[in-house]
Amino acid sequence: MSTETREHLTEEATSEQLGIGMRFSLHPHCDNFVEVILGALDDAASAGLTEHLTIETDDVSTYVGTGTEPAEQRLVAYLAAVVAAASRRSNGGHVVAHVLLSRGCPGEATCDLTVTGLPRPAPVEIEPTGVRAAAQWSLYPLLDGGDGDHMTHIEDAIAAAQRRGVAASPAHYATKLSGDVAEVLATVADAWAGVGTRVPHVVSHVTVSVGSPSTREG
């Protein structure tokens, strides 16, 4: 993005203008997976966590978007509740969630990066769920001007996760995170939103695993 364009971004964008949202799919590894998924979604709705969210499910994944602040808080609170509820409803069995977070996507119908600045959202704060998770997390700054700064943004985000005590170790093409599912997802969202204060279009992908038979310790 040119200096001229950066200077033009003066007014702070809203979540609706930036097209902030996510897609996720939930995979409980149990025979009654349908009941677990639907029950987890109902639990999150009963807790009032669907308020101000647009939720659209198809045969591949569920889109969740919001134009109401604080967008990051609303998205993560909902997602953490769904994953934790699925874990409980499967009696601590293996549950996997694939999550794609996007902000400032030029493909969003409501996205407008030409007349608005980049917001600085408050950190996500969610009560622990009591469900421990392991995750593999990747971060993609997609509109950083093409000057090679993307690795700086990624390294800064990983360092922040390590200071938070959630980043466990590097992995091929990802960083492994470990901790309560709420803290893992908050770490991902804060890094994604943090890079979004400097880069208009940022995507983050995370695969969350709870109750894995391969390593119960995460």
TrEMBL record:
Residues 133-214 form the Thiamin/hydroxymethyl pyrimidine-binding YkoF putative domain. It comes from the Bacteria. Pfam families: Ykof. InterPro entries: MTH1187/YkoF-like, Thiamin/HMP-bd_put_YkoF. This is YkoF family thiamine/hydroxymethylpyrimidine-binding protein. It comes from Georgenia halotolerans.
